[in-house]
Specification:
Strands 1-8-5-4-2-3 form a six-stranded parallel β-sheet, with helices on both faces. The two termini are 37 Å apart. It folds into two domains: 11-177, Rossmann fold, CATH 3.40.50.1970; 182-384, Dehydroquinate synthase-like - alpha domain (Dehydroquinate synthase-like, alpha domain, Up-down Bundle). It is of the alpha/beta class. The protein has helices at 22-25, 46-53, 71-83, 95-107, 117-120, 183-201, 209-231, 236-248, 263-275, 279-293, 295-310, 317-334, 351-361, 375-384, and strands at residues 11-14, 31-35, 58-62, 88-94, 131-137, 147-152, 157-162, 170-173.
Length: 386
C-alpha cells in the first residue's frame, strides 16, 4: 500500500426525517442562498421540509440549475450572491446542484476577473464560502467530497475543480427523498457509483487488501440492490444502501493508498460536452471498451474482480478478466442502459478524433494509473465504443 493522508471534514446526517436538522447546522445569523435544480424538490416534499427548517432565517432562492451545471447559469447565481451579500450556501439536489454550489462557493471569494479561470487553470480552492447540502439524487458522491465538474456550453468544455475548501460543512442524506426519482436517474446513479469504484480499483495489485475489499463490497451491494431499487424507490432498506453506496464510492476513502485510473471519466466528460449524453451513460459506453483495450495491464485486478464480485471460478486469469468485462457490460444493459455510442447519436463518426484532440489540447496526454494512455490510445478506445 502507498503512503497517504486522509481527512474528510464533512458531517453526515443520515436517515429519515433529518432535513429539519438544517436549523442546527447553519448559523442563525447567516444570509443563505438555497440552490436547486429543475424544481422536482417542490413536488416530492423536500422543498417544504427545507423551507420549514429555514424558518426564521434570512434566505434567498435560486432554481433552474441544469443537469450538467452550466457556467452561464451559475454566473447569474453568483451575481445574486454578491448583490445580496450572501454568506452561506445550501445545495438541495443531486450532484449537479452540489457541484454548482461548490463552484459558487469558490467563485464568491475568487479575486480574479474571470471565474472560469478556476477551472481552466486548475486553481486549487483552499478557502470558500461555507455551504451544506441536502442530497436528493444519489450518484456522484459530491455530498462528501471536494470535487466538482462544470460545463461551459459556449466553448464545449466540461472541466473539474477541487481543493480542501470545497468539502461541504454538512450533508443531510434522507433515503426517503429518492421516492420520486424516475428510473433513468436511478440507473444513472447506480452506474455512476459503480464506475467511480472501478476507477479507483481496476488498476493493478498493490497489496492493499482492505482497500480492495472496501471497493468490492460497494460493488457487490450495488449489484444486489439494483433490481430492488430500480423497481421500488420506496423500499427504504434498499434506498439506504443505494444512497450510502453512492456516497462511499467517492468520499476519498477507497482511493487512499492505491493507484487510480480516471481515464474513463476524462473521455466520458468529452462525450457529455459534445452530445449532452448523461454523465453516467458516457461511463457505461467507455468502461467496457477501456478495460478490453487495457486488458493486459489490468488483467490481474479484472480477474480478482470477476472472482470476488461476480463469482467467476472457471478459466485462466485472462479468461476471467474477459468474463468480468462482459459481466459488467451485461449489468449495465440489464439496468436498461445502452453501452454503444451509436445508440445515442447518429453523428458518432469522427468522435474519436475530436475527443483525442480535445484532451491533447488540454495537455492530457498521459492518462490512466500508469500514465500510458496517449491521445492515440484514446482515439482507439473511443472507436471501439461506436
Amino acid at each position: 500500500m502507498n503512503n497517504f493522508e486522509f481527512k474528510n471534514p464533512t458531517k453526515i446526517i443520515f436517515g429519515k426525517n433529518t432535513i429539519i436538522k438544517i436549523s442546527t447546522e447553519i448559523p442563525k445569523d447567516a444570509k443563505v442562498l438555497v440552490l436547486y435544480g429543475g424544481g422536482s424538490i417542490k413536488t416530492n416534499g423536500v422543498y417544504e421540509q427545507v423551507i420549514s427548517a429555514l424558518s426564521g432565517y434570512n434566505f434567498k432562492e435560486f432554481g433552474g440549475i441544469p443537469a450538467n451545471p452550466e457556467y452561464s447559469v451559475l454566473l447569474k447565481a453568483l451575481d445574486i450572491i454578491k448583490k445580496e451579500n450572501i454568506n452561506y450556501l445550501l445545495a438541495v439536489g443531486g450532484g449537479s446542484v452540489i457541484d454548482a454550489t461548490k463552484f459558487l462557493a469558490s467563485a464568491a471569494l475568487y479575486k480574479g476577473e474571470e471565474p472560469w479561470d478556476i477551472l481552466k487553470n486548475n486553481i486549487r480552492t483552499e478557502t470558500a464560502m461555507p455551504f451544506g447540502t441536502v442530497l436528493t439524487l444519489p450518484a456522484t458522491g459530491s455530498e462528501m467530497n471536494s470535487g466538482a465538474v462544470i460545463t461551459r456550453e459556449e466553448t464545449g468544455e466540461k472541466l473539474g475543480m477541487g481543493g480542501p475548501g470545497l468539502f461541504p460543512q454538512f450533508s443531510i442524506l434522507d433515503p426517503e427523498a429518492i421516492k420520486s426519482i424516475p428510473p433513468r436517474q436511478i440507473q444513472n446513479g447506480i452506474i455512476d457509483a459503480f464506475t467511480h469504484v472501478m476507477e479507483q480499483y481496476m488498476t493493478y495489485p498493490i497489496q492493499a487488501k482492505l482497500q480492495d475489499r472496501f471497493a468490492e463490497s460497494i460493488m457487490q451491494t450495488l449489484i444486489e440492490i439494483a433490481p430492488v431499487i430500480s423497481k421500488d424507490t420506496s423500499n427504504y432498506e434498499a434506498a439506504c444502501d443505494f444512497m450510502w453506496c453512492c456516497t462511499m464510492a467517492l468520499n476519498g476513502l477507497i482511493q487512499k493508498g492505491v493507484p487510480t485510473d480516471w481515464a474513463i471519466h476524462a473521455m466520458g466528460h468529452e462525450l457529455t460536452a459534445m452530445y449532452g449524453i448523461d454523465h453516467a451513460r458516457t461511463l457505461a459506453i467507455i468502461a467496457p471498451r477501456h478495460y478490453r483495450y487495457k486488458l493486459e495491464n489490468k488483467k490481474e485486478k479484472l480477474a480478482q474482480y470477476g472472482e470476488r464480485v461476480w463469482g467467476l471460478t472457471v478459466g485462466s486469469t485472462e479468461e476471467k478478466a474477459e468474463q468480468a468485462i462482459a459481466k459488467t457490460e451485461a449489468f449495465f444493459n440489464e439496468l436498461g442502459v445502452a453501452t454503444k455510442l451509436s445508440q445515442y447519436t447518429e453523428s458518432y463518426q469522427g468522435t474519436a478524433e475530436k475527443v483525442a484532440a480535445a484532451l491533447e489540447a488540454r495537455g492530457w496526454i498521459a492518462l490512466g494509473e500508469r500514465k500510458d494512455i496517449t491521445p492515440s490510445d484514446v482515439k482507439k478506445i473511443i472507436e471501439m465504443s461506436y
